[in-house]
Design brief:
This protein is α+β, with helices and mostly antiparallel strands. The protein folds into 2 domains: 301 residues, Zn peptidases (Aminopeptidase, 3-Layer(aba) Sandwich), CATH 3.40.630.10; 110 residues, Alpha-Beta Plaits. The chain has 9 helices and 17 strands. The strands form 4 sheets. It has an 8-stranded mixed beta sheet with strand order 1-2-8-3-9-16-10-15, with helices on both faces. A 4-stranded antiparallel beta sheet has the order 12-13-11-14. Strand 1 and strand 2 form a beta hairpin. Helix 3 crosses helix 9 and helix 7 crosses helix 9. The longest helix has 21 residues. The two termini are 24 Å apart. The structure holds zinc ion. The site of zinc ion (ZN) has 5 residues, from helix 3. It comes from Alkalispirochaeta americana. Its cofactor is Zn(2+). Belongs to the peptidase M20B family. It holds the Pfam family M20_dimer.
Length: 421
């Protein structure tokens, strides 16, 4: 299937959708226990449901928990196994996603980009930009994140569906689509309507640079440290006071700096404090622990627990409680049991004109937990860079290539996947 003649059409469609979706404020909130964690995610969910219905997709709905579900029936006479595609609606709470005002740099010339608000995206610091000279690049205006993670994925799936609706000659099996809330706070599949899914395999469109595909992710734990000090007036505190703020500082200082995100890359894992709150009497620290190797995760969690005990011994009036919980597991073992899944995906990426690069994800996706739930779900690039911050950017050609990858994937899935896989 040659899509060259459709490049302009696909590019315009995916760009237009992306610019529309990033303007919708969908920041999630890790402090809210409900799903969705923020009601505003419904704004994008309803917008997408409306657009899906307008393009004639049957069986579209938005669940009470803000999952958009849609089904594109198989082409007449095609009996391929169904396939599920996912992307997430929310953006990371690390930086504001309100009032996103994307900037479009057409025919990018390789120079530093003055984003606005005093921020500059400089290829000297981010040389990937130079791979896209002559292309259209989309950035923030410096005041918010962009939300390419994961509105690029949403736009790419929507564009692919639009194309399939308009081009019945591209035959495919049943395609199921779910847009999820709250992926960024690790709860993207908490309320996923599992009973609705008939596909045995899925793909998330939630990766980075074009060509990258991912079947391996971190194993992830979250650790909560509660520190209770011993409070007394500072004027008469000698040998009595245990200051919870100071103790939180000591706890954090004892975490190996060499095992931080800023000191590691590739296959090395880390500890990362993500939040501290508290006062004189009581403090709380939240950390995340990540590694591809479960034994390394276990070692770090054990260290954090021991660290609490050690400080308690050093400050007998204090109480330190350390609680750890698993967030998601490395999906590699499960996916590698079905080698055809990655084979077909690699073929699809090649058909889109790219060399597939298999990378371990230094993070997780909805697919990590879906894989645990029994639906192997590798991740496909969505094309963006520098996620979760004001330097986030995405080349439009990479979004078009992701859309093309989806189209090739559904076509190849029909031809190459065994009926009883
Ligand atoms: Zn994402």
């Amino acid at each position: 299937m040659d899509l060259t003649q459709y490049h302009a059409l696909l590019t315009d469609d995916v760009q237009e959708r992306f610019l529309r979706y990033v303007r919708v404020h969908t920041t999630s909130d890790r402090h809210c226990e409900e799903t969705p964690s923020t009601k505003r995610q419904f704004d994008l969910a309803h917008l997408l449901a409306r657009e899906l219905k307008e393009m004639g997709v049957s069986q579209v709905s938005v669940t009470d928990h803000c999952y958009v579900t849609a089904r594109l029936p198989a082409s007449p006479g095609v009996t391929a196994p169904p396939l599920l595609l996912l992307a997430h609606l929310d953006t990371a709470p690390d930086l504001s996603g309100e009032g996103v005002s994307p900037r479009l740099w057409e025919s990018y010339d390789g120079s530093p980009l003055e984003l606005g608000h005093g921020y500059r995206l400089d290829p000297a610091e981010y040389p990937d930009l130079l791979d896209y000279i002559g292309d259209t690049v989309i950035t923030t205006d410096g005041s918010t994140l962009l939300g390419a993670d994961d509105k690029a994925g949403v736009a790419e799936i929507m564009s692919a569906l639009r194309f399939l609706q308009d081009h019945p000659e591209v035959e495919h099996g049943l395609i199921e689509v779910i847009f999820t809330p709250d992926e960024e706070i690790g709860r993207g599949v908490d309320k996923i309507p599992l009973e609705w899914i008939t596909a045995q395999f899925a793909f998330t469109l939630d990766g980075g640079r074009q060509g990258s595909i991912e079947a391996e992710c971190f194993s992830a734990w979250q650790v909560q440290v509660e520190i209770e000090g011993y409070v007394i007036h500072p004027g008469s505190a000698k040998n009595k006071l245990v200051n919870a703020v100071a103790l939180a500082g000591r706890y954090l200082a004892a975490i190996p700096q060499a095992e931080s995100p800023e000191a590691t890359e590739g296959r090395d894992g880390f500890y990362c404090p993500v939040e501290v709150r508290g006062d004189y009497g009581r403090a709380e620290i939240e950390l995340i622990v990540r590694d591809f190797d479960q034994a390394q995760v276990d070692r770090r969690v054990a260290y954090l627990k021991e660290l609490g005990k050690t400080l308690e011994l050093a400050y007998p009036r204090s109480r330190i409680e350390v609680r750890a919980r698993q967030q998601y597991l490395n999906m590699y073992d499960t996916i590698s049991r079905h080698p055809f899944v990655m084979d077909v995906l690699e073929k699809a990426v090649r058909a889109a004109g790219l060399e597939p690069v298999l990378e371990p994800i230094r993070g997780g996706t909805d697919g990590s937990r879906l894989t645990e739930m029994g639906i192997p779900t590798p991740n496909i690039f969505a094309g963006g860079f520098n996620f979760h911050g004001r330097y986030e950017w995405i080349p439009v050609s990479a979004m078009r290539r992701a859309t093309e990858t989806i189209l090739h994937l559904v076509r190849l899935w029909k031809d190459e996947v065994p009926e009883k896989s």
